[in-house]
Design brief:
With 338 residues, this protein is an alpha/beta fold. The chain is built from 17 helices and eight strands. It has a single domain, classed as Metal-dependent hydrolases (TIM Barrel, Alpha-Beta Barrel). An eight-stranded parallel sheet has the order 1-2-3-4-5-6-7-8, with helices on both faces. Helix 5 packs parallel to helix 7 and helix 16 runs antiparallel to helix 17. The longest helix has 18 residues.
Length: 338
């Protein structure tokens, strides 16, 4: 077991579906609360917050953690700790969601406050690039069950800030699919593409394959979760034909109750069908499994061989938004013996 774990950690890989707020551990939450709260949260209270049993409970816990991120220094701390942990696992590149939509809502509909916050994130990113050789792109995530005008402000802020910060690579739609699909955001996605932003989307996590078709129809380039694609063979063929990057999150899906077990997750079936599957941790502090452990579980629970794990790592680079030359460089490293 130690040998396969060492192999996984040495294997260069990208993480493409990772929410910054979801990397905040209970210990860091306690530290943040001590900065801000008259009555700081205790360690036992923080631990209890992470013990949800369904998707709704996860959303509530996620919001509570987000409320502790108040200043640029808070975001910088959270981002730096996330980046340190990624590098320890052999991650060489990450494309990280920032819940800008949530920030917009709980800061009284004012995104002007976001720019100084973002400067804290950028300080952590530049430090990681300089000190640990990790590259990071940011994806501005709106919340689909807020209103379309609210999402529009998030995407417009991404386009506006990208001129100064090219590390802002794309947009996404998180939140509760059960309350809103992708169609209302069609025009926003078209505008974002015209502004040079890449298009990601959460689809088919708590909804059927029709939600994935809808996400594809508005131009989404990469899709998160896509659990229900298994129910539609025509959809599987479409995803394969288009080489759509799939950001799979098995342990996340188990913890939120939308998949019964890691062994039952469609990861193996999608991989064997030739889809461009990647494996990710989503919200590792909440779900108790980081990306290295997801690779390990793919090996122990679904029989992925070392060569297949290597293919997953290569897929993560191919599905990333890195420049072609950078992809080629990492792919050549992944192909080397380990």
């Amino acid at each position: 077991m130690d040998d396969i774990q060492s192999f996984i950690r040495r294997l260069p890989k990208a993480e493409l579906h990772l929410h910054l707020e979801g990397t905040i551990t209970p210990a860091t939450l306690v530290e943040l609360s001590a900065r801000h709260d008259a009555k700081p949260i205790t360690q036992s209270e923080a631990d209890a917050l992470y013990q949800f049993t369904d998707f709704t409970g996860f959303i509530e816990a996620f919001k509570a953690v987000t409320h502790q991120l108040m200043h640029a220094e808070d975001y910088e701390l959270a981002a730096w700790r996330m980046m340190q942990h990624l590098a320890e696992q052999g991650v060489v590149h990450a494309e990280v969601f920032i819940s800008v939509g949530v920030i917009y809502m709980w800061r009284n509909h004012d995104l002007a406050c976001f720019e100084p916050i973002f400067e804290g994130l950028e300080r952590a990113r530049l430090r990681a690039e300089r000190e640990i050789g990790l590259s990071v792109y940011w994806i501005f995530d709106a919340v689909r069950h807020f209103t379309v005008p609210e999402a529009e402000r998030v995407f417009e802020k991404a386009a506006e800030m990208r001129a100064e910060f090219p590390s802002i690579i794309g947009i996404g739609l998180g939140g509760d699919e059960r309350r809103c699909g992708s169609e209302p955001f069609r025009e926003l996605y078209s505008n974002a593409r015209a502004a040079g932003l890449r298009l990601t989307n959460h689809a088919g996590e708590t909804t059927g394959p029709e939600a994935i078709w809808e996400a594809l129809s508005i131009g989404s380039e990469r899709l998160g979760h896509v659990l229900s694609a298994l129910e539609d063979q025509n959809l599987l063929q479409e995803l394969k034909t288009r080489s759509v990057g799939l950001e799979l999150n098995p342990s996340s899906n188990v913890r939120t109750g939308v998949c019964p077990s890691f062994a039952a997750h469609p990861l193996r079936r999608y991989f064997d069908a030739g889809l461009l599957v990647t494996i990710n941790s989503d919200d590792p502090a909440f779900f108790g499994s980081d990306i290295a452990n997801e690779y390990l579980l793919a090996h122990t629970e679904q029989g992925f061989t070392r060569d297949e794990l290597r293919q997953l790592a290569a897929n993560s680079v191919r599905a990333s938004f890195l420049p072609a030359a950078t992809k080629d460089s990492w792919l050549s490293k992944i192909a080397q013996p380990y």
